[in-house]
Specification:
alpha/beta; flat; binds zinc ion
């Protein structure tokens, strides 16, 4: 058990060791996800999930409250004014509200993706890389992806589905049809290849992510076979 302090009060959390795994019917489908700034994600079939509305609204509100808080801060004052503490509290409460909305969105979406697919491939984006270009406005989106990924992996474990994080290199450059390199600037929204393949930029990336993911799954099986031979070899040695 632990006591946690949040902006709106104290919470008591209990840690209970329970096996929450469930068996569900296979869906016989797989999915590749490309996360981006324009949409929350684009999948390999071209379907897009929009960024939740509270992302943009929340960013604006947070920036506003943060400015108000800074204005009330007096450098020389030792105990800060009541107005400062009020502004600080408002900012903290908004932060808490957004993080709860973000979590709710991530949990529902991740559960839906996992239960309707057997294999889920997505980019292995490092949170450190994402927040390199740090500003408050972008951080809500970044934290949203990170949390979504964490919940994908949790539900993957819970429902016995395969989740694969693939290296993000070249996923948007390569052609998902023929593998040729098609360089694009950030503003190029459409992937056009000499082979005749024309796709939305993000859909092309999602297809690449899925095929890299599926080839990785193949490797896992191979490795398992390798392990078995090494067990046999070890047994032979001990004879
Ligand atoms: Zn091509």
């Amino acid at each position: 058990m632990r006591i946690v302090k949040r902006a709106d009060g104290y919470y008591c959390q209990f840690l209970v060791d329970v096996d929450t795994r469930e068996k569900i019917e296979p869906s016989y489908s797989e999915i590749g996800l490309d996360v981006g700034l324009n949409h929350f994600y684009t999948n390999d079939k071209g379907n897009q999930i929009e960024n939740p509305r509270f992302y943009r609204q929340g960013e604006k509100a947070l920036n506003r409250l943060n400015r108000r808080k800074s204005k009330k801060y007096i450098k020389s004052a030792k105990p800060q004014s009541n107005n400062y503490h009020k502004a600080r509290k408002r900012y903290a409460l908004k932060h808490l509200k957004i993080s709860r909305q973000r979590k709710d969105h991530a949990v529902k979406l991740a559960r839906c993706v996992i239960t309707s697919n057997d294999v889920v491939a997505y980019e292995d984006l490092r949170i450190a890389n994402l927040v390199k270009n740090h500003n408050l406005a972008k951080s809500i989106t970044d934290a949203g992806w990170y949390q979504f990924r964490v919940w994908l992996e949790y539900f993957g474990y819970k429902f016995g589905k395969i989740t694969i994080a693939v290296p993000p290199q070249y996923t948007s450059v390569n052609c998902s049809e023929c593998g040729a390199k098609v360089t694009k600037t950030l503003s190029t929204r459409t992937h056009k290849c000499k082979c005749g393949c024309v796709l939305d930029r993000d859909e092309n990336a999602a297809r690449n992510i899925l095929s890299i993911g599926l080839s990785t799954v193949g490797h896992t099986g191979f490795q398992a076979w390798g392990d078995e031979t090494s067990i046999l070899a070890a047994e032979k040695l001990s004879e």
